[in-house]
Amino acid sequence: MESKRLLFVADFPSVQQDKDFSQTLVQIPPSPHCEVCVIVPVRNEAQMLAATLTALIHQVDLQGQLLDPRRYEIILLANNCSDESAAIARSFAQEHPDIALHVVEKTLPPAQAYIGRVRQILMDEAYRRLCSLGRTRGVIASTDGDSQVSPTWIAANLYEINCGADAVGGRILVERTGRADLHPYARACYLREVGYRYLITELETYLDPDPDDRFPRHYQHYGASLAVTAEMYALAGGLPPVRTPEDVAFYRALVRVNARFRHSSLVRVVTSARQIGRTNVGLANQLNEWIEMGRQQQPFVVEPAGAIETRFVARGQLRVMWWCVLNGYQPDRKSVVSLAEMLGVSVQWLLEKLTQPYTFGQLFEQVEERQQSEQIWASRWKFVEIEQAIGDLRLRLESLRLTRSKLQRNSTPDDLEPPKELYPTKSLQNGSLKP
Predict the structure, then answer these.
(1) Three-class secondary structure of residue 20 per DSSP
(2) Segment among 13-17, 39-43, 177-181 with least mean pLDDT
């Protein structure tokens, strides 16, 4: 199955046909035993870099035994630094010669000196090196210079990939001391957002579950902990050439090609709660926004529970309709009218899109873009304060959990599985799924 995925890359419209993975960043060839290439973009991380690297060299397997250092390498790119980051990394590499730590220092031109470009350079290099070993299922694993991975980070990523995932998002926790030092309103907003997003994740599990990303899971797919196989990196077209957030853009590219993405609770990283960021978006900027909201006594508003539930229900119905059309069955107009109304898009537009050779990921992305342009969805669902949304989600989940519990008592395990026909084999041919 894995070989089929790369076989049809040339036929798939979203893949960057002219993507150049041939540029060499590291001259030393990888160890023939290398399975994981860890990439670390660094810019002025002198205060935290030693802790970041220490965490990466003290890796163990899931049984707690020391991980063979030949199984992974680390590529660190110190770009446009005005501190001692590169010198610290080189000194660290000399002190730990048993670890393959490649330190590269570059000064990029202003037009390229942003995190999206730096991470792209690194991930392209990791892809090239893994392919030179013939490891199409080798793992490109990304973290950040201000983050410390857990001792089992590499092993847990490998475990999820070996279980069938094409890409893995790790759980990213904010460092406890820094979180405690935050402005009280920012800290409260952070904790509420985490709770809100976890409740949404659980609701999705009941209303439109993904068999490749089962609950319990989390909601994060960010650069501080993001892993992908070499073959899926190529199939998705590599890291998109955007400034930020490049990690979210890459996740969307993976969804478009129906990658099996796992939000794994086994994969964990601790990141800093600093309020001076390296980009115009990200956690640091979000914390500053919350601080300013607190000063101005502005409420934290989010999408209401009703909108979230409607989206998941409608997405599940659209998936069924898409699969029927893909297999030659035409939906009746009444069903399309009902679904278009639920989604907040025009009927004719939806009928037209259902006839196009999209993957489901592409189709639903276009639906969301259409929702924004038609503004029906936005006018129907007004934002509410996050406390209300959390309360409403909890009430809805209580009912769904009770129903699930009753089903579990009265059903066999197979009865609780989502219909397999809704998640077909993900070989890609001529822009559509091959059943």
Answers:
(1) coil
(2) 13-17
